[in-house]
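Good morning,

Attaching, inline, the backbone tokens for the sequence recovery test we're adding to the shared suite. The designed sequence is right after.
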């Protein structure tokens, strides 16, 4: 029986996805955490914890180094809220082009008897533009960016995208009419609107800063519904003051951009729809079950992707440091135990590697001795033995 601990309000559909082999919130030594926004940075991770799955895209709330050292795989649910974010960006494009917020605020402040005559006289203040024929630059063409790009094409916009890490699989999801740029500066230089959709990593911090904003034409409108820190807010304030930006829309506020007439901050609602919460919870539950039962890895943050059909009777999985001679040390331990390897696979992601080894014959006594021997290898973080039922 696997033990799952949940944090935050997890959509019931996700909880219902677990089979009868799983118990929810019944143990202080869980095999898995299913989380949303809880901050785990100040919590000690139990040694029993084999997997953390976040029902959402970002994992800023998870201590990745501590999890890896604990032998805990960390997963997110990419794409689960992509449609929700896409729809919000399209809504904001329309709101921005038609000055809807300013117009609504005006109407809210003028409710006197002659409101009809007054608004008829003043409505030209809020004349907007149409999206048809305008240019949208999309920085990042993954799950969200590709949907935004395709939807903008449907509105009659010209779309130019930039993504140096675009995978072949992701490229299939992008309409051929989306023009590809070879740099951010090239993508944004003729854009009327710029939206960014990239993960928050060390090399994406301040991805849009002063040089990139300087490359934009005057009065461009900028959207950051990716992560806080992807856009340099200090550079945004300077660009607004210089008239380079017309408006900045973001889901990630901080004091220095609060109460600014040309900045709209929404309360982190990009992926907050009922459907997205269901998608994320369900996907996270399936990820947990797949990892615990087969050891296979896809969309892990701290482990490499490794999918191996589980056809043998037993499977060892080993999370270890990506250092020389590790595979030979592991196989030597199996040879010393008199085991023949039916299937073996190994992959690495930065400083961490992951090895899957399948065997057909194994008795309980030798299995425990082997696990103990593998755990004694200094660079090993966690060893698991899975039984193919």
């Amino acid at each position: 029986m696997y033990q799952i601990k949940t944090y935050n309000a997890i959509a019931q559909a996700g909880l219902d996805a677990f089979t009868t082999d799983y118990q929810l919130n019944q143990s202080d030594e869980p095999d898995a955490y299913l989380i949303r926004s809880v901050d785990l940075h100040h919590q000690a991770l139990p040694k029993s914890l084999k997997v953390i799955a976040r029902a959402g895209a970002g994992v800023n709330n998870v201590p990745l180094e501590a999890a890896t050292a604990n032998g805990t795989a960390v997963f997110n649910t990419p794409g689960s809220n992509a449609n929700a974010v896409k729809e919000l960006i399209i809504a904001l494009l329309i709101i921005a082009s038609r000055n809807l917020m300013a117009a609504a605020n005006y109407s809210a402040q003028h409710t006197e008897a002659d409101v009809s005559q007054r608004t008829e006289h003043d409505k030209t203040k809020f004349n907007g533009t149409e999206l048809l024929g305008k240019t949208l630059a999309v920085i990042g063409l993954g799950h969200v960016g590709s949907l935004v790009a395709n939807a903008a094409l449907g509105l009659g916009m010209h779309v130019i995208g930039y993504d140096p890490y675009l995978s072949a699989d992701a490229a299939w999801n992008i309409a051929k009419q989306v023009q590809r740029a070879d740099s951010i500066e090239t993508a944004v230089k003729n854009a009327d609107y710029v939206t960014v959709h990239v993960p928050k990593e060390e090399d994406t911090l301040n991805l849009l800063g002063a040089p990139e904003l300087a490359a934009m034409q005057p009065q461009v409108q900028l959207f950051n519904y990716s992560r806080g820190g992807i856009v340099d807010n200090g550079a945004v304030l300077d660009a607004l003051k210089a008239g380079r930006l017309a408006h900045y829309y973001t889901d990630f506020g901080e004091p220095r951009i609060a109460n600014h007439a040309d900045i709209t901050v929404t309360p982190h609602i990009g992926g907050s729809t009922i459907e997205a919460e269901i998608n994320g919870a369900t996907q996270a539950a399936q990820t947990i079950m797949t990892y615990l039962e087969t050891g296979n890895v896809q969309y892990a943050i701290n482990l490499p992707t490794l999918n191996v059909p589980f056809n043998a009777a037993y499977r060892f999985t080993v999370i270890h440091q990506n250092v020389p001679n590790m595979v030979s040390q592991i196989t030597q331990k199996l040879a010393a135990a008199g085991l023949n390897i039916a299937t073996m696979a190994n992959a690495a992601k930065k400083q961490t590697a992951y090895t899957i080894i399948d065997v057909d014959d194994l008795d309980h006594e030798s299995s425990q001795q082997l696990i103990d021997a593998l755990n004694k290898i200094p660079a090993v973080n966690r060893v698991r033995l899975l039984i193919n039922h």
